[in-house]
Design a protein that fits this description.
It is a single chain. By secondary structure, this protein is an alpha+beta fold. It has two domains: about 180 residues, CAP (Pathogenesis-related Protein p14a); about 55 residues, Ribbon (Laminin). Helix content is about 20%, strand content about 25%. It is built from four helices and 16 strands. Strand 15 and strand 16 form a beta hairpin. Helix 1 packs parallel to helix 3. The longest helix has 15 residues. About 0% of the residues have low confidence.
């Protein structure tokens, strides 16, 4: 199974690539399904897997220790260059189904796993991600497009918050609300849900704790809440490094 830190990183890469379509949550149940399939060392679904038809799958195999999960997910997203949205088809002799599942708007949960496999005398790795609900639907033999083109969050359902925005996001993601503030303090802050304000970590400031403070107080005390110096008597300047002259 993926280490929790790696699973968070993996989810971050997936949500970054899905962009402004929909936010995916990590599911430990899907992780177990992905791990079970990875341990079989088969890239294709077997007949008994038909009971999991509501699950969507992405798989990738490569030589051992040559590819990271981030590179695998990036390769799936790169397939989008060959996807023609207006026709809902992939260019001739190209593969797009990994991309369409990755960005499928109604898929809300994902779980991934990787497994070492032996093929002949060679070690190789199988990467598997399971999505629920699954994508890549067909109706009357025609592929359904993975999302509806338009403004971000324009089709979020009433059970979702509408637009969850990160400070560095241009648009937003449909997401079930975890807090009423609908904002994030990034990696360097903690959100106070009562006040909807960020409490920034050391050396960070700004509304979303996105600004790194680089002030060094040579002759003074650092005021963390203001990212500034309170200078000692006889000194001034932004970094309290300049002797001040008393006016008489």
């Amino acid at each position: 199974l993926l280490h929790p830190r790696k699973s968070s990183f993996c989810l971050g890469i997936i949500n970054t690539n899905t962009g402004l379509i929909g936010h995916l949550d990590w599911s430990e149940k899907l992780v177990l399904l992905a791990q079970e399939r990875a341990e079989s060392c088969h890239t294709d679904l077997s007949p008994q897997d038909q009971q999991l038809r509501h699950i969507g799958w992405n798989t990738y195999h490569s030589a051992h220790a040559t590819t990271s999960f981030a590179e695998v997910i990036d390769s799936w997203f790169e397939e989008g260059r060959d996807y023609m949205y207006l026709s809902g088809q992939c260019r001739e002799n190209a593969t797009c189904q990994h991309y369409t599942q990755l960005v499928w708007a109604t898929s809300s949960n994902v779980g991934c796993a990787r497994q070492l496999c032996l093929r002949g005398d060679a070690l190789w790795e199988l990467f598997v991600c399971a999505y629920s609900p699954g994508g890549n639907w067909e109706v009357n033999g025609r592929s359904v497009v993975p999302y509806v083109a338009g403004f971000s969050c324009s089709l979020c359902t009433s059970s979702m918050s509408g637009c969850f925005r990160l400070w560095d996001h241009v648009g937003g993601l449909c997401e079930t609300p975890r807090n009423p503030c609908r904002m994030s303090c990034g990696q360097h802050g903690r959100l106070n849900i009562s006040s909807c304000q960020c409490h920034c970590g050391p050396r960070f400031t700004g509304r979303f704790c996105q600004v790194r403070c680089s002030v060094k107080c040579v002759h003074g005390r650092y005021k963390e809440e203001e990212c500034s110096c309170k200078c000692d008597v006889g000194y001034g300047g932004r970094s309290s490094s300049f002797p001040s002259t008393a006016v008489t």
